[in-house]
Prior knowledge:
- The complex is a heterodimer.
- Chain A is an alpha+beta fold.
- Helices cover 40% and strands 27% of the residues of chain A.
- Chain A is built from 18 helices and 22 strands.
- Chain A has a five-stranded antiparallel β-sheet with strand order 2-1-5-4-3, sandwiched between helices.
- The N and C termini of chain A lie far apart (127 Å).
- Chain B has a single domain, classed as Rossmann fold (3-Layer(aba) Sandwich), CATH 3.40.50.
- Helix content of chain B is 42%, strand content 19%.
Amino acid sequence: MTAISFSTNTEFDRLTPRAWLEAILVPAIVLDEAGILLAHNTHVEDLLQHHAAPTLGKAIEGPFRIMADRVRRVAGLETRAWFEQPIGNAWYRIAAYPLRARPDGPVMQAIIATDITKQKHAEFEIRESEGQLEEATRIAQLGTYKSIWDTGAAHWSPNMYIIHGLTPGSPLTGRDRYGELVHPDDRHLYERYAAIQSEGKALNGAEYRIVRKDGSMRWLRLDARVLFDADGQSYATFGTCQDITEGKQREQELRNLLRRNAILYEALDASPIGVAVVTTDSPRPEVFYVNAEFVRLTGYKASSLTKRSIGALIPGDDASQWDMVLEALHTSGGGAFELTCARRDGTTFLGQIEVAPVRDHPGRDATVFVLNLRDITLDRQRSAALLQSQKMEALGQLSGGVAHEINNLLQPVLALSDLGRDIADKDPVKVRKYFEVISSSARKARDIVRQVLTFARRDTPEVAAYPIAGLVRDALRLLQSGLPPGIKLVEHIDAGAVEAVVNPTQVSQVVLNLVKNAADALDGEGDVTVELTCVDIDAANAAALTVSPGQWIKLRIADDGEGMDSYTLSRVFEPFFTTKVAGKGTGLGLSVVYSIVNGWGGALKMESEVDKGTTAMIYIPVVATP
Amino acid sequence: MAHILLVEDSPEVSLSVSEILANAGHTVEETSSGKEAIKALRAGAFDLIVSDIWMPEMDGIALLKEMRGAGNDIPVVVISGCAPNSPLTYTAPLAATFGANIVVYKPFEKDELLRAVASVLAD
């Protein structure tokens, strides 16, 4: 690089370097090799602003020093160089030139700084708006492309590459290779789009799928226009390509959701139970939805039920029952009700209504409820009929058993009174015997009638609080003499002074029945164990016994006799079911025991195994522990 | 007059029936179950059996089955506390199907029983 030199002997030659410097309308300085300031023009003050004015003959300081250093660092002293440099809030184009006073003289350096702040800002603005456009297309996942028809060259925007999963600027794929990116199922579509473009026609919203090299599938949308040159000749296609995968996915999700909803609605309409969805946002609950069965049950059309108060179903004179349902809705607890419901035509039916909250947010009170409605009029009639037939069957069994017993007892009464009349004068001893038999038969008949009444619980015996242990001991004492000599009573009475609300006669009846059964099972020889204890029943056992958990009196009467099979055990509480011979058992004993224990609010459990024995357990509620 | 085997578990009924029969001139042997009756049948000869149905050990139906099964065709009068229209299944009509000659329902008048006994004996 040669230094600038001037030709001599001209008018121009008379110009001083200072005049030159001043002629330059921007800040300019001249430095020597060591960076000492040799000269500067007056414009340097514009640049220096608050910095001290440079001093001739001294090393340069301030902004010019920054420039000088950079020039020397980047270009060296003998090279022309220029660059852009921000100083303060301004931008300068710095130009550096080597200067020599004579060809073999030392090299000096002229530095000229031009304020380019305005141009720079304009440039930044353009760059910024370009950047924003690029960012916008990136966000919109929009790429642009331009295909020149003559050459077949294609120009892609960086986003176009990114959309296709390619590195921006990598060699463009030709049409054939582009076709490889298109989803195999959509290649015929893409071929058609390519054909349309090559015919110079526009494309609007052409959709197809590509498969990126990493295997991910994307949905793309093409929009293309034909470009014309100054002569009005079409020469290229310009198009946009948008990745619409997310939109497509949302579309698919929406389609799935709609299909799911449609299925749910169909399912609800196919349900044999009336379903209504009720919202309680407004002061009066509103019906939000009803299914087909609900419409069928009520006779109202869905359109007349939705957006109406649930009160549409309230029969005119029985509004209070619906208040219960509304109360359940407001307290959010739900519930089940049996209500008389009104159809649209005014007829009524017995409806079973279950209300349950729909919890759309855990922990927040529900404002939406689902209401199930069933017409249970027929069920109710059927179960009433069933109950009636069971009653009749029980009544038949009861009357048949009673008739059998009474007939047997009437037999001696009828026959012996007749015979006795004939021989009254001839054989008074025999007649007296007849009377005894007649009288004892009549008493037995009376007892049977009483037992039947106890079973039916028509005569309610008086009950009071008694220490249960004493009553059981009394009953056992009375029993003892009546038992066969081979039967031994083993007593464990350990209930202290615990009291129960019972009737003493009934206690002896219960003990008598169970001990006699046990003795009978032993066939004349063996032990009958009678235990009376206080027990704590936990929740699990309570549920099995159908009693509430807590303290109970337990009366256990056990034998190790012949036992019962499961069939017999299942029937022992049936009235007149007996395994005993006529006269020995009425078949009422255990029925009576069952009935009495129930009357006390207690529970009765029987366990038995053939040849192992039978255990009866009676649980009696405790009244007081003094 | 006939020698009659009475099978009846109730002592009161047994007494009344045997008194009716004895008064009419028959001789009566009393047993209280089917088992006892079988024993008595082996021990002696009878013209007629009068039997209850519901009894311990061996009831009237079982007695009939065993007797008839063994070829014993002594006439049997069944006496039953179950009325013909009783809802209980184990009733007198069943006895007839197992070879009872006649059924008399308790409580019966003495003449009812005697007529039945006479009619069976006449056959």
